[in-house]
Amino acid sequence: MADDLIHDRTAGIERLLEIMRRLRDPETGCPWDIEQDFNSIAPYTIEEAYEVADAIQRRDWPELEGELGDLLLQTVYHAEMGAEAGHFTFQSVVQAISDKMVARHPHVFGDESREKSADQQTADWEAIKAQERAGKAQKGALDGVAIGLPALLRALKLQKRAARVGFDWPSTTQVLDKLREEAAELVEAQDTLSPDAIEDEFGDLLFVMANLGRHLGVDPEAALRRTNAKFTRRFEEVEARLATRGKTPSESTLEEMDALWTAVKTAEKA
Fold first, then answer.
1. What range(s) does the NTP pyrophosphohydrolase MazG-like domain occupy (predicted)?
2. Based on CB atoms within 10 Å of each CB, which residue in 37, 46, 118, 145 is the most buried?
3. Run of H or E residues at 186
4. Torsion of CA 177, 183, 186, 188, to 10 degrees
5. Rounded distance, CA 42 to CA 37, Å?
6. CA 228, 233, 236, 238 torsion: positive or negative?
């Protein structure tokens, strides 16, 4: 019966759950899958989430379909390990997120009015989340911001939490002033301080940059991904133009590559 389920392409999520159970079977499963635990799988979960975001950014819908499947597999993997340890099951995970969505949308599933602005709905959402944190004995404003988040994203979330309780600069001008201050401290640190202190000053500068993005309404992670893509695109074009000259970057001078870089930028903006 289990084999029939595994080969039934119309069986949906139950098929995937059975596949994972078989992969993790101590006697007949895959040795690699059996050896994994929450810690070893977590990096793959993070990687798959980024690959989903990458497919969305490239608007590659067939690729996105596959990446969403990979991300779903991560949830199934963690749920199976949770079931084996007696912590939770896939069904309890589904129930928990369903309950949460219903509770956080009283204007859809309850008796509250839907006639609210997006800002009011966001404020209500945050109020409900604050109540949930209080129920989990998370009393501090920063409690519950996951340590495992990418550092730039976590900085943004920490700043948003602090801003909700009034710990925030009132204007972008003050953030820019702080940015100049931190940049000057970093310049000074590179000549006078230890590598550890330089790292500390560099972190301060990045933290203020994240705050500046928040004040400007810019997602720092999205902005940096966009710049990474732009750099990759332009550098690959520099490589292509060098190739027409029979050269590689390592065989070229900085001046030659910089001139080509400027030409590529100009061509993009034309």
1. 36-109, 174-237
2. 145
3. helix 172-192
4. -80
5. 9
6. negative
Task: Report helix, strand or coil for 12.
Answer: coil
Question: And the tokens for 225?
Answer: 């991904």
144's CB contacts (< 8 A; 6+ apart) are 133, 136, 138
Q: Which residue has the tokens 């519950």?
A: 144
Distance CA 244, CA 259 (A): 15
123-133, pLDDT tens digit by residue?
777 777 777 76
Contact 244, 211 (CB under 8 A): no
Measured CA to CA, the distance from residue 95 to residue 240 in angstroms comes to: 53
Q: Which two tokens stand for residue 118?
A: 């997006």
Which CA distances in Å does 74 have to 121, 131, 158, 174, 262?
31, 29, 26, 43, 43
Q: How far is CA 133 from CA 96, 105, 130, 141, 166, in A?
A: 15, 17, 5, 9, 19
How far is the C-alpha of 7 from the C-alpha of 14, rounded, in Å?
Answer: 11
The domain 2-104: what is its CATH number? 1.10.287.1080
Confidence of residue 135 (pLDDT cuts 50, 70, 90): low
* Structural domain boundaries in the chain: 2-104, 222-269
Identify the residue whose tokens are 């929450």: 38
pTM: 0.65
